[in-house]
Amino acid sequence: MRSSWTAFANRVLPIAAAALLAACGGRDAAAPEAPAASAPAAPGPRYVCEYDPDPANLPECELESMYLADPIESSMMMMLEVTRFPAIDPTPEQKKAAEDLVRRCHASAEQHGWHDFAKATADGYKLKVSDDTHYNNVEFLFDDRVLDPDRPEYLMFYDTPKGKVLTGFMFVPRSNTEEGPQIGGNLTRWHYHTWHKPICMVKGIYDTGPVVDGTCATGSPSARSPEMLHVWLLDHPQGPFATAMGLPPALLERLLAEREARSAASATK
């Protein structure tokens, strides 16, 4: 039986890809046929796409070089998805790599006991500055690992009537200029934030608070975050790599109930 993740990829991706291709300049009807779907997907130039929480809306995408060259756009407070595979279906190898990452994150959370908030805290996860769901591990932030399910830079916890519940991992690279690896092609879109006012960052990845009188007590001013990639440990309606930063209470309650039901059913087999 296919997982909900695989069903999501096979159902939603072709639609989203077609929409994005149209938004970024579609093929003419008389143009030659595209390469076969099984052909390797070669990464192209980087595109940035303004994140829209409504998946029904077409994303506004442009070349990252053009976006950054515009002093108005590049200074706006934005949440931007980045990809080198706009409108390109993932190869079977990329789909497998994406599925493997999700599986390994689930296994790691179980192995390390991170569903227990006290265990996660004991392992070094502390609440991120100006956030109420993302908990960072400073040791993992400053190691040399990228996209390591055993050393995720962030765990995402939500408050519920039953206490804090683990909902996913968040990965970042080693600096705010390093590109996150798109192991799953267009399935694994990373994102970053730009801000009106710089905030204090250590090595561009660890935020320590606002800039005061133009200076930082720790770190240095930065106008953008590092790239980030979520891996949700719930059946997020936008897929396991959904950029969405939050879950409304009703949706969270439903997704947690579904996860508990699957876990109980698996335990009885």
Which key features would you list for this structure?
single chain; 269 residues; alpha+beta; six-stranded antiparallel β-sheet; 11 strands; disordered N terminus
Description:
This protein has one domain. The longest helix has 21 residues. The strands form 2 sheets. Strands 1, 2, 3, 8, 9 and 10 form a 6-stranded antiparallel sheet that branches. A 5-stranded antiparallel sheet has the order 4-5-6-7-11. The chain is an alpha+beta fold and 269 residues long. The chain is built from 6 helices and 11 strands.
Write the layout of secondary structure elements.
Elements lengths: L3 H20 L23 E4 L9 E4 H6 L8 E6 L8 H21 L4 H6 L2 E3 L6 E4 H4 L12 E7 L2 E9 L18 E13 L3 E5 L9 E5 L4 E4 L16 H19 L2
Antiparallel strand pairs: 1-2, 1-3, 3-8, 4-5, 5-6, 6-7, 7-11, 8-9, 8-10
